[in-house]
Amino acid sequence: MWDSNFSQPQTHLLLQKVSRVYGKNFNFFKQHYVSHIITDIRQKGTTDNTSTHPGEGFQQEAAEAFEQTNKKQAEKQVWLMLIIL
Q1: What is the pLDDT of residue 1?
Q2: Residues 16 and 40 occupy one common structural domain
């Protein structure tokens, strides 16, 4: 089970064990960053008042703009629509 008192080296060892036992590869940025979270929170504090919602709104606008394109060179058309809006 997860122990909130794990240090960064302990977390790294846990990920290595999971890799061996389950054949998982944690060698990518997002998963690697998890091993630093505990140390970062202890050193810098929590990330209060943050949200991913602003980015989600942009994605919806981009998706709607894409639907209005002719699907050929759509990136150029989407950017033009987003700039005009």
Answers
A1: 44
A2: yes
Confidence of residue 58 (pLDDT cuts 50, 70, 90): confident
**What distance in Å separates the CA atoms of residue 60 and residue 50, rounded to the nearest whole number?**
20
Q: What pTM did the predictor assign?
A: 0.36
Structural domain of 12: 8-44
Q: 18 and 36: one domain?
A: yes
User: So what's the pLDDT on residue 54?
Assistant: 64
